[in-house]
Every structure is written in C-alpha cells, then in structure tokens.
Model the fold of this input.
Amino acid sequence: MLKVVKLDTYHGRIRVLNTISLNVEKGEIVTIIGANGAGKSTLLGTIAGIYKPKAGQIYLGTKQTSCLPAEKVVREGISLVPERREVFDSLSVIDNLKLGAYHRYRNDRNNIDNDIENVLSLFSALRGREQQLAGTLSGGEQQMLAIGRGLMANPKVLMLDEPSVGLAPLIVKEIFEILVSLKKRGTTILMVEQNARAALKVADRAYILERGAISLAGKARDMLQDARVQSAYLGARLHA
Done:
C-alpha cells in the first residue's frame, strides 16, 4: 500500500535521511524505532509532504505522492498524527474532530457525523466532552483526540509520531490496545515510537533507523528476541 524507495531528505545542508526504503502493506502495523535524532520524525514528515525529499519516491498504491504538498497528501489518503498531539487548544473536542475531515466536506459530508460517532465509540473517554476545550483535556485524552482527528481524514494509512510520549504507563497501554483494535478494523498504521518494547508487541513488522538509515528490518516478534535490539532498545544487557 505505502512504498518508500531510496528516500533522501535534507534539513539545509544536513542529510537527515539516507536512501531510506520501506513498505507498509494493507492492514499492517509497522513501527520504526530508533534513538533521538535518528530521523524518525523527518521520515514521517517527508511521507506526509511536510518536507520535500531531495531524492527518492513515495507511492501510495500506484500513485506517486513524493512531490505533492501536505494538503494533497492528506486527500490522497495519508494522515499524520504529530508528536505531542498538537490539538487546537482553544477549540472544542468536536471542532477538532471536524477539522480532521475538512477536506471531505465537499464530497463526503454526509458521512462525517457517522465517523465522529465511530471515533467517540472508539475513544470512550471523549464521549460527553464534545463541547469541552481540547486544551483542558489530560495528556492521554489529547492523544486520543489527536488520533481521532487523524482518523477523521478517512486515511488509507494512519501515521503516528511517538503516540506514547509523555503519557503514564496505564494510558500508554490503553492507547496501544486501541491501535490493535484499529488494525482489527482494517486500519493500516505506520508508527514511530521510542517505547520499543510496547511498539514491537503490537506491530507486525519493524524497521530500526540509525543516523538516517535503516540498519535492521524484520518481523516485530523476531526483533523482540534479537540480541542487538534487546541491548540497544529494550534495556537488556548482553552476557559474555
């Protein structure tokens, strides 16, 4: 469904992504893990059209999206939930959700109310708070709202940038359980996450990103048992 081929992205003169290639199949959860500064957020931002690649291609199905502006990437079916939520604090929960569907109002307006109801059913903590200002929600509730807003775009691929950042362990567990339920509904997810253990437990496949390049790729369950991954990302110590 989503294919990235030999992608290079620069910030100024600094090469942040170095010949990145990856793919996400329909209905999968794929996670990208790596240290701070590895280029994870830049990768999602490039796929989302926020950053322009210097080389390489991005395909959604057969459509190349590499040179499209961010708003057209959303229309094509790629929705990004940014790091630290970035909800609109001064707007209500319901208005945040409606903004996620802004590009659908002309051609798909009749389905938007149903989709809002589906989001509220998925994130029960938001039900009854439709008129509450988003800035007054807890961090976990804001993350749920941000994911719900991303879903309101009716995406073919939902991208999540660090969905667990700054959240308590119980909330992280709930968020990842929701991601699994989304997968069961057929949602395709590409997720960047520093909580490697939690991400690998729910993902189908994983990529390790180091210094802007893919250093390892494979099934998530195999990564959990890989000594290199355990040592570098799971807090395990190797014994001689």
Summary: Residues 119 and 148 are 6 Å apart (CA to CA).
